[in-house]
Write a structure and sequence with these properties.
Number of domains: 2
Largest sheet: 11 strands, mixed
Strand content: 25-35%
Radius of gyration: 18 Å
CATH superfamily of the largest domain: Thiamin pyrophosphokinase, catalytic domain
Structural class: alpha/beta
Length: 218
């Protein structure tokens, strides 16, 4: 199953079909206003008016209202409900990057949190300029996507064991000099990487206009 989680106010919609769509807080209003399918609306809805919330309730097939004070963000609850819908689902999150820095960082690291790390390979975080995917320890290969020029790597809990082959700038295990490797590129059609512990966030990105690509997180 392919599930789309719409958080905040996305500035685009992926050009692919989804089996189930979750709107998180203001993201559910965006789906309602765009007259797009909304299988589940979830959030505390503190970023929309009562009138707008009523519109969402009418449009959504299911509606879950959360308490304003809670231990999880609305997007974390949305991702949890996605995997309750199907533990093997491939989940794409849009509208999750931009706006408040605390929400941005929570969303970036959420797929490798204790609750979701076993599902990290199933989660993709997207905005118009960036695609974030997540990898557990081991050996992995990724194919070149010509729509993205740059390739970045963010280490989380990796102790100088990261090795990168097939990229413009390669890295040998034990050679690590940073926890974030930015502005790398594909040299050929495939890049391989391996590491012994922790997780790796892989960022494919491209240049673009910030004004056109801005997203707001509710």
């Amino acid at each position: 199953m392919k599930i789309l989680v719409v958080a905040g106010l996305p500035s685009f919609l992926p050009d692919e079909a989804f089996d189930f769509i979750i709107g998180v807080d203001r993201g559910s209003l965006w789906l309602t206003e765009q007259k797009l399918p909304l299988d589940l609306a979830v959030g505390d809805f503190d970023s929309i008016t009562e009138k707008e919330k009523c519109l969402v309730k009418v449009h959504a097939k299911s509606f879950v209202e959360l308490a304003a004070e809670k231990n999880d963000t609305d997007t974390e609850v949305g991702l949890r409900l996605a995997f309750e819908q199907d533990p093997k689902a491939q989940v794409t999150i849009i509208g999750g990057m931009g706006g408040r820095a605390d929400h941005l960082l929570t969303n970036v690291f959420m797929p490798i949190s204790e609750e979701f790390k076993e599902h990290c390979r199933q989660v993709t975080l997207l905005d118009p300029q960036n695609e974030l995917t997540y990898f557990p320890a081991g050996s992995h290969q990724i194919k070149n996507d010509p729509s993205y020029r740059y390739l970045g790597f963010v280490e989380v809990g990796i102790q100088k064991s990261l090795a990168i082959q097939g990229a413009k700038y390669e890295l040998e295990a034990g050679q690590g000099f940073s926890h974030i490797y930015a502005s790398n590129e594909f040299k050929d059609d495939e890049v391989s990487f391996s590491f012994a512990e922790g997780h790796l966030i892989v960022i494919r990105s491209k240049d673009g206009s910030p004004s056109k690509n801005k997203e707001n997180i509710s």
